[in-house]
């Protein structure tokens, strides 16, 4: 039986390109779709009536695809639906985008095939820090002292409790704005200037954590039951001291990291407990040798780690899409 794999991702995703390049020689029929092109560039349709089975299909580029014949859907990094430019009213645009997204989420969720790393609603739940931090603690991970609050006074008390050595980070997405003008928001130390504007915290909750000294940071990519760990020497440059995502490739060495077996097993357990088959976990290794959990990303990038360390993550993801299991 030929594997039929639908890859949901935005245009220009080179990571998806590399995985697809491994799938097609193995006989897989791979269709790549940018959900942002629906409904203008592609159509997803559903038909039902009486007691007849529900049927779903996709029409794109002159091709019709029976969605009920898929063996796997990869929720890689799908773009949000984009209303036509002729619709200019912001409220109407927001309504149309929400309608399309809600419809597509329902269609993907209704499919009987394997979904990687999970159905969209499971991915969305796993991304929520309040949820995955709770699950991580229950599995025995160590967390930094952490507070999620919209109370300025409580944040100021937390700041005092930790001698001013705290950082803030977004509760959900690190990147906001539009595809044309993205804006990043990563982990930052709280400064005296920030404290002067503490009252604005009432506008939305924020996550604040005590700063944890780092020997280095560890990115753990779990694919099925396989674990790939890379150490990021973020303290080698001031640019990445608080957040390695502020890349400084020339001055930030990356190497393969050997995780303790018990911690590697715990990382796999976390991914599975969240209902996922893939997850990118961020840890800190302290100067004393303790591992501290920061967060998990169900759709985290991995090609840059593979390029720097040679870890065969792309091959593992291809096997997961084809076979549903990687050990």
Characterise this structure:
This protein has about 325 residues and is an alpha+beta fold. The protein has a 5-stranded antiparallel β-sheet, with helices on both faces. Strands 2-1-6-7 form a 4-stranded parallel β-sheet, covered by helices on one side. It has helices at about 15-25, 90-110, 120-125, 130-140, 150-160, 190-195, 260-275, 305-310, 315-325; strands at about 5-10, 30-35, 40-50, 50-60, 65, 70-75, 115, 145-150, 165-170, 175, 180-185, 190, 205-210, 215-225, 225-230, 255, 280-285, 290-295. The radius of gyration is 21 Å and the shape is globular. The protein folds into 3 domains: about 5-115, Rossmann fold (3-Layer(aba) Sandwich); about 125-130 and about 135-140 and about 210-325, D-amino Acid Aminotransferase, Chain A, domain 1 (2-Layer Sandwich), CATH 3.30.470.20; about 145-210, ATP-grasp fold, A domain (Dna Ligase, domain 1, 2-Layer Sandwich), CATH 3.30.1490.20. It contains 9 helices and 18 strands.
